[in-house]
């Protein structure tokens, strides 16, 4: 397979999974806004920093400051074409890649991605309002899952499919840590200190729901939602498909069927070891954001090793 085609397949799968999880990230805030009493202060700005787009946002909105509303943040994360990690940019990136590799994937995949593009163009502005935002997020998540289902059901298990699996797994692991980061990064400021634990548990419940993990959490953990239990489930559970360990372990199983690249193996082992050895109880008692940043840096190094090993070697 040409390295250009492999690179495109890898990034196509990453863009699709990024679009889905960007919608889910906004869903964390939207779900919390619906559940919280109006007396509780809710801050949207940490979501922008969570996806690493703080500098882009400040350059586009120099007078916004830290107290930005849900409409501004939702527009930036969902629709802004100048934000390279926005939902619209991700879908457009996947669509543009697909134009060049349409012979490599079934026609139904192109139709599903094009439907997503047209839906965003026609209904994106409605998503800025609270009334229609959850509906929009659900429709986007369903559309992205449709693309993933078509790829899983209709694409031959060759080396091209392996590159898509790599991209999907790494992107999902990265976005899971970012959604955890968003849920734990001070979105809620209670008026009274004794309310902090209750509202913190509500944040973790919103994180689980945004990752479609709440029902599986209840089935596997069988305890009330706390930061410790939610972190252990989303980071280390070996059976839940969106957990970081599950994603990375699944990606590791792809490597024996690909040309050997020792640097890629080393980076996989490093990030899997860091995640498996994390102490969820300690993370929950402190600020998990620093650990999530560390995992994201390691995932970035893993991505660079894949690029250097397979696409530019």
UniProtKB/TrEMBL annotation:
Signal peptide: none annotated. Pfam families: Alpha-E (PF04168). Residues 1-311 form the DUF403 domain. This is Alpha-E domain-containing protein. It comes from Pseudoxanthomonas composti. The lineage of its organism: Bacteria, Pseudomonadati, Pseudomonadota, Gammaproteobacteria, Lysobacterales.
């Amino acid at each position: 397979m040409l390295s250009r085609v492999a690179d495109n397949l890898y990034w196509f799968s990453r863009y699709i999974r990024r679009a889905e999880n960007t919608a889910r990230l906004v869903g964390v805030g939207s779900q919390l806004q619906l559940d919280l009493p109006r007396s509780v202060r809710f801050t949207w700005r940490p979501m922008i920093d969570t996806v690493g787009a703080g500098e882009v946002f400040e350059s586009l909105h120099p007078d916004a400051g830290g107290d930005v509303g849900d409409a501004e943040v939702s527009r930036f994360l969902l629709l802004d074409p100048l934000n390279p990690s926005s939902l619209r940019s991700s879908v457009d990136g996947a669509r543009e890649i697909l134009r060049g590799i349409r012979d490599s994937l079934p026609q139904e995949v192109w139709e599903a991605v094009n439907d997503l593009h047209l839906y965003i163009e026609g209904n994106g502005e409605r998503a800025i309002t609270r009334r229609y935002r959850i509906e929009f997020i659900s429709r986007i998540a369903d559309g992205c899952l449709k693309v993933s289902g078509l790829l899983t059901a209709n694409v031959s298990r060759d080396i091209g499919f392996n590159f898509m699996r790599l991209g999907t797994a790494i992107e999902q692991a990265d976005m899971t840590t970012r959604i955890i980061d968003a849920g734990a990064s001070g979105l809620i400021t209670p008026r009274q200190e004794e309310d902090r634990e209750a509202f913190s548990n509500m944040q973790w419940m919103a994180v689980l729901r945004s990752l479609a993990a709440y029902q599986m959490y209840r089935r596997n953990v069988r305890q009330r939602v706390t930061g410790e239990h939610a972190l252990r489930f989303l980071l280390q559970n070996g059976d839940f498909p969106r957990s970081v360990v599950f994603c990375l372990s699944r990606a590791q199983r792809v490597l024996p069927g690909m040309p050997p690249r020792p640097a890629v193996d080393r980076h996989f082992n490093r990030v899997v070891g860091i995640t498996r050895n994390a102490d969820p109880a300690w993370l929950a008692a402190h600020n998990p954001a620093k650990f999530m940043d560390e995992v994201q840096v390691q995932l970035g190094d893993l991505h660079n090793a894949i690029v250097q090993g397979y696409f530019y070697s």
